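[09:14] KT: can someone run the structure on this one? pasting the chain below
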Amino acid sequence: MAFALMALIAIYLAEGAIRRSAPPSFVADKGESVTIRAADGTQLVCRPVRREAAGDRCVLLLHGVGDDGSSQLPLAKNLTAKGITGIAIDMRGHGASGGDLRGYGVLEAGDTALWANYLRTLDCDGGIFGYGASMGAAILIQAVGASAPFKSIVAECPFSSFRLIAEQRIQQRSGPPLWLSRPVSEALVSLAFTYVELKYGIDLALSAPENTNTRGVPVLLIHGGQDNNVPPEHSIRLKDKLADATLWLVPGAAHINAHQVAPVEFDERVNAWFSTVTRSKDP
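[09:31] RB: done, structure tokens below
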């Protein structure tokens, strides 16, 4: 009886995490949107923001779970003033893009590599860069492992592994004591992952940015010191495990609001990362 109840809870959690929460939405600036197709035929949409000043750099911007590319337009427009073209994509299962399922990088890393290669068709001789927020940050790191041609990337508040953050979310909901909530969360996540793999053929255990080979692509990790959504320990783990990684822990910042807490330093650090940090060998 207890196992059956655990299994039902795991299925409920798995379906909520993996299935899109809303149908594809209309893109207000549809005339400016760009569409490509993923390897499995899923239609993917992005919103380009052209540079306002002279320059030849390009940045791909990835949003968090349950969001869409419009959330990245303020940052994209800020970058255009510095001579950068940005494309804010709607990831599969979000916004105007197709797809009914979310893979937390298992599916999206390849999609992101396609978008990065699309940027090569634009005036991007100064380099192709990436910025990701939350889930988008974790996917961006995994895209480096999928051979996305980034010169360097900025990852704000990423998770180090989807299994770990999934367990922590359950622990946050169930509360203390940890000695009881931890084994329960581990069991639920294992059941949920097994269910998703059997039903949808997606191995969520592979969503683990900390296992990505990022050698040659410098990674700037930004994490709020007061982030209660994705704890700072995730970026600390990534700093220890990834090659060429730098960590900026932002005191007083919560989840993906470093720019609100330290706007001047944020702009300076990000623009510098997209200006002077180069790969040891360009793609």
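[09:33] KT: thanks! DSSP finds nine helices and eight strands in the chain.
[09:34] RB: yep, looked fine to me
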